[in-house]
Amino acid sequence: MTLQVVAIKQVDQNGNRKFLVEVLMLNLLHHPNIVHLIGYCADGDHRLLVYKYVPLGSLKDYIHGKLSHYLITTSDKDNGQPGVLSSRYARGLGKGRITRVYYTQLYLHFCKRLFPSLEPITSSSDDNNFTSYVKVPLPISNKDMVLKFIDLCADSSPGKKQLDWDTRMKIAIEVAKGLEFLHDIAQPPVIHRNINCSNILLDEGYQAKISGFSLAKLGPIGGKRHVYVKFQGAIGYSAPEYVMTGELSVKSDIYSFGIVLLEILTGRKAIENSTDGEEYNLVEWASPLIKDQKFSEMADPTLQGNYPAKGLQQALIVAEMCVQEQPTKRPAIAEVVTFLTHIASGKYDSESQDVQNAT
Questions:
Q1: Average pLDDT, stretch 264-270?
Q2: Residue 59, H or E segment
Q3: What three-state secondary structure class fits 173?
Q4: What does the alpha-carbon distance between residue 23 and residue 36 come to, in Å, rounded to a whole number?
């Protein structure tokens, strides 16, 4: 008897329709970059989905999850209270005087590795869900020291690592190939409707697999370009025409993919609260920087500069193409696969003109 490790997802009693959609879709859709459904159980009120186990977790775990659960702060506010900054703003930290490092218990010993003389101080208040902090003996104004701390934290998660440039491009290409199968090969075409970092799982070797098909919809046929449905999905990832009018097409998935690609390249979330409590949108942040060609300012700091500048530029341009407000201006997924494949191979000179022309 052969034993197989599986992942089991329990669907709540109100999710019968989503359960049926996922079962039907994954029974029909088989591709290396789509999660594999082994079986299901429907017994009374119980609904279970059984998948092939994907050991490396979700893309979200790497881009936004456990590897970024620490904060470095600056004392730059008039009231003397530390201004909380996440690791994604590490580029600017070298300009200030960092006097406190907030940590979770997991990272305490890594703080001590960097600063051996640190003594932990327990805070009585809940500072952004971090209950303790350590006081750095001397202010830090060296960006390299900040990045060293980030690197130590990245090395701390068991079984996890910071994604390097090549791995990020590999994941992006494989997600695009999964979407290419849904849009161009499946008949009728399938619109996923919920592409986001949580629904991209990573198998051995960081092979990307699209999951989360409970909202999937069969695409238009007979020459039609879109269908109209009630909006369901993730705010920040969903295309504006879909959110506002319910107009859904394969280009809606292209928009969502563009958001994921921006997250992969920048390390930022689709929607996030800034340090002053205001909410910002990733597209609104990225678009002016891309227009002004400030590409290096957009790179995820955890890459620590280890990326090809031209490759980053071209990948950001592809992401910008995908998140165009008008769906007709977004590229087809086959074009996206071609662009990203060229970028990953280092063929920037031949590919650059193609991307520029497409824009």
A1: 93
A2: helix 59-63
A3: helix
A4: 11
